[in-house]
Amino acid sequence: MKMKKLILISIIIYLAGFIAGYSLEPIGRQNYKQYIVKNDPTYSKIVKNNLYVITCEMFGGTTLLPLVYSLFFSGFALGLILKNLSVVGLNLKNCLLLTLSHGIFEIPAIIIAGAAGFKIPYEILRYLAGKKEQILTQEDIREYLTLALISIILIVIAAWIEANITLEIAKAMLNSS
Questions:
Q1: What is the C-alpha to C-alpha distance for residues 172 and 64, in angstroms, rounded to an integer?
Q2: How far is CA 68 from CA 14, 124, 156, in A?
Q3: Residue 125: other Cβ atoms inside 10 A
Q4: How far apart are alpha carbons 128 and 130 in whole angstroms?
Q5: Residue 79 Cα distances to 1, 6, 18, 94, 122, angstroms
């Protein structure tokens, strides 16, 4: 039950960021095309960036600010990207193709990393509230490490798909429009 709460908190923060990002003014058709062409990231750049994001989430729970910021900003970036894709003239099907091709792994990885980041503070609060006798049990640590490992595996898969499939799809779509 408690993991569901932590995942739900992560989802809510991510969605709040998404809504904020989507509600912003788009940067414009030509600017976005130039951005995609100029910023042709490699797999190593993408995986490095994505691992940094989930690391901030997994270890940012001690102060909570880096964790909340990272979850919110990840959702914000997706919202802003989808808003700009609509300005470029892509229909819903193409937008989903571009985001879900790697997002099906990346979004859950970010949310799971967020839940992992909330795990330690959650257990400390439970201990301080007198709901458990130990701050962290072996089970707590095992759950944290399991979430962290799942998140890392998913983010590495997502980065490979983004670098090798999604970017090629994006370039083909932009060149045909």
A1: 40
A2: 9, 18, 22
A3: 11
A4: 5
A5: 29, 22, 4, 15, 28
**Domain ranges for the chain:** 2-176
29-70: per-residue pLDDT in tens? 555 555 555 566 788 888 888 888 888 888 876 678 888 999
DSSP 44-88: HHHHHHHHHHHHHHHHGGGTSHHHHHHHHHHHHHHHHHHHHHHHH
What is the C-alpha end-to-end distance of the chain, expressed in Å? 48
Polymer length of the chain: 177
Cα–Cα distance, 77 to 66 (Å, whole number)? 16
Alpha-carbon span 51 to 114, nearest angstrom: 13
- Residue 27 is predicted with a pLDDT of 61
pLDDT, tens only, 111-125: 999 999 999 889 988
CA distances from 39 to 33, 35, 79, 170 (A): 10, 6, 19, 12
